[in-house]
């Protein structure tokens, strides 16, 4: 049931403060809002305890480390060896560029709409709507069911026959809907626990593998991983950057929660950048340890190589460790998506870019419960109506539009630097505009090499074209007929 193609790709309110008259005149009323004042809003839910730095790190890490990324990491080291390590380092640098652009934009316009808000102010409502729906909503709708199918499969291995098909994924989805509706405090507790268990399990398996503390190292039969520097020296490792990039995308999901976090001016850039550093270290340890026990054939040919890895390192207990990693990774990802994407939709609804119902929030908990339920429903539909094999090409295609959303973010920074040079920027991208230019080129390169095999390339890009055509058509009609705005007219209001 588990298609091997998956292992090559994985996929996911306005509180404007008072400004000084002097700044209003200087900036022609386009200054970024003061975040400290914004966070002191009068809404009841804004008085709740803010999410701390550890929780912010947990959000970033929990979105990136999923089953798909663990599969991609183990396959990558099998395919490329030292070349994949070099590609992972390049992907880490590119992800830092992405984080810089999102940090600059989110602190200029600290609202739930995130990419939609930045883009409407830079290049108009039409690209804003397309970027968010194609880059985040559709990706979540298609990618999370795949993660849930994998959880169902590995729990079926651990506890055969105990749960009816798809019951456990649906229970997970329902439980996390409830915790997200109950507010940021409950979300934070759940996210911190999930991320702690997940990171602990990954570090544990890596350390035990490298040290041989549980199962002593033995000579690996079959083809060993290639540690030659030749792919690095001749530049052929560049072909693996597209694969490695999937281990480093998603930290920007902290940005929609800017009104719920503590000291965002300091903590949002730090959380994104330090979480990338942590994930680089975790993945390097994880893949290096795998080479002590698994040959290239297993790393690249197994549908669940991290399960083979856990079994090799821990023996009979390996299945339990693998199940813990799988369940916590999926729960953490679903939890983060249900927290972040509805807040994107909330901000878009407040800007007139989505159905007004999306801006409805709970009077008691201050959470966008309509948006949360909406995301839960659109995730459950493909889970119930499709299988993993039919979802994989859709996920790969949709994930490419996620990369295009990064391109849009970089473009937003470039345009706003020229259009609003005096706008307050609590965080400014170092070495501007180099990160944006390199980021755009790199994301387009990765998007062009996003198919796991040449045979699937045509299918993937046909699906991608269909997704973008559908989303663009709806966005065009929405902007022209409902909003009555020009498609590419910046909205500085």
Percent in strands: under 5%
Structure summary, number of beta strands = 0
Which radius of gyration do the C-alpha atoms yield? Answer: 22 Å
Shape estimate: globular
Quaternary status of these chains? single chain
Largest sheet: none
Distance between the termini: 51 Å
Find the structural class using helix and strand composition. mainly alpha
What is the arithmetic mean of pLDDT? 87
- The run of helices and strands is HHHHHHHHHHHHHHHHHHH
- Please, how many helices? 19
Low-pLDDT sequence parts:
1-47
Helix content: 55-70%
Can you characterise this structure?
The chain has 493 residues and is mainly alpha-helical. Helices cover 66% and strands 0% of the residues. It is built from 19 helices and no strands. Helix 9 (184-211) packs antiparallel against helix 15. Residues 1-47 have low confidence and may be disordered.
Keywords:
single chain; mainly alpha; 19 helices; disordered N terminus
Helix and strand topology:
Layout: H1 21-27, H2 35-38, H3 53-64, H4 67-80, H5 82-108, H6 115-122, H7 125-158, H8 167-181, H9 184-211, H10 230-233, H11 241-244, H12 264-290, H13 296-301, H14 305-314, H15 318-350, H16 369-385, H17 388-419, H18 434-448, H19 454-483
In short:
This protein is mainly alpha-helical and 493 residues long. It is built from 19 helices and no strands.
């Amino acid at each position: 049931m588990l298609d091997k193609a998956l292992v090559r790709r994985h996929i996911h309110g306005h509180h404007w403060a008072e400004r000084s008259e002097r700044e209003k005149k200087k900036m022609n009323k386009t200054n970024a809002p003061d975040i400290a004042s914004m966070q002191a809003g009068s809404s009841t839910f804004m008085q709740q305890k803010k999410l701390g730095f550890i929780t912010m790190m947990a959000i970033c890490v929990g979105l990136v480390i999923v089953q798909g990324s663990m599969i991609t990491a183990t396959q990558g080291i099998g395919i490329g060896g030292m070349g994949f390590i070099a590609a992972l380092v390049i992907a880490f640098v590119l992800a830092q560029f992405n984080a810089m652009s999102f940090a600059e934009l989110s602190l200029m316009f600290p609202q739930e709409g995130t990419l939609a808000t930045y883009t409407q102010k830079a290049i108009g409502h039409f690209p804003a709507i397309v970027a968010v729906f194609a880059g985040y909503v559709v990706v979540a709708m298609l990618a999370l069911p795949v993660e849930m199918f994998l959880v169902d499969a590995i729990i079926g291995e651990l506890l055969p026959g105990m749960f009816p098909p798809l019951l456990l994924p649906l229970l997970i989805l329902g439980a996390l809907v409830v915790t997200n509706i109950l507010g940021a405090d409950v979300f934070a507790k759940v996210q911190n626990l999930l991320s702690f268990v997940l990171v602990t399990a990954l570090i544990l398996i890596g350390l035990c593998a490298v040290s041989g503390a549980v199962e002593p190292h033995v000579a690996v039969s079959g083809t060993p991983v290639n540690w030659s520097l030749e792919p690095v020296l001749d530049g052929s490792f560049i072909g693996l950057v597209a694969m490695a990039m999937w281990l480093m995308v998603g930290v920007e999901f902290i940005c929609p929660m800017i009104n719920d976090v503590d000291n965002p001016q300091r903590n949002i850039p730090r959380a994104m950048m330090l979480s990338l550093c942590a994930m680089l270290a975790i993945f390097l340890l994880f893949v290096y340890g795998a080479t002590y026990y698994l040959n290239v054939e297993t790393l690249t040919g197994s549908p669940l190589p991290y399960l083979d890895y856990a079994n090799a390192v821990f023996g009979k207990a390996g299945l339990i460790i693998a199940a813990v990693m799988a369940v916590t990774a999926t729960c953490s990802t679903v939890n983060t998506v249900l927290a972040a994407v509805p807040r994107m939709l909330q901000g878009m609804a407040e800007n007139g870019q989505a159905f007004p119902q999306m801006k409805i929030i709970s009077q008691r908990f201050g959470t966008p419960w309509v948006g949360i339920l909406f995301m839960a429903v659109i995730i459950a539909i493909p889970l119930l109506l499709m299988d993993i094999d039919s979802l994989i090409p859709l996920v790969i295609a949709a994930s490419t539009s996620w990369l295009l959303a990064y391109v849009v973010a970089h473009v937003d920074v470039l345009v706003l630097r020229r259009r609003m040079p005096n706008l307050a920027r609590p965080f400014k991208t170092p070495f501007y505009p180099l990160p944006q230019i390199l980021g755009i080129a790199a994301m387009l390169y990765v998007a062009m090499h996003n198919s796991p095999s040449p045979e699937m390339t045509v299918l993937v890009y046909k699906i991608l074209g269909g997704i973008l055509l559908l989303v663009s058509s709806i966005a065009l009609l929405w902007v022209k007929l409902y909003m009555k705005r020009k498609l590419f007219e910046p909205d500085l209001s």
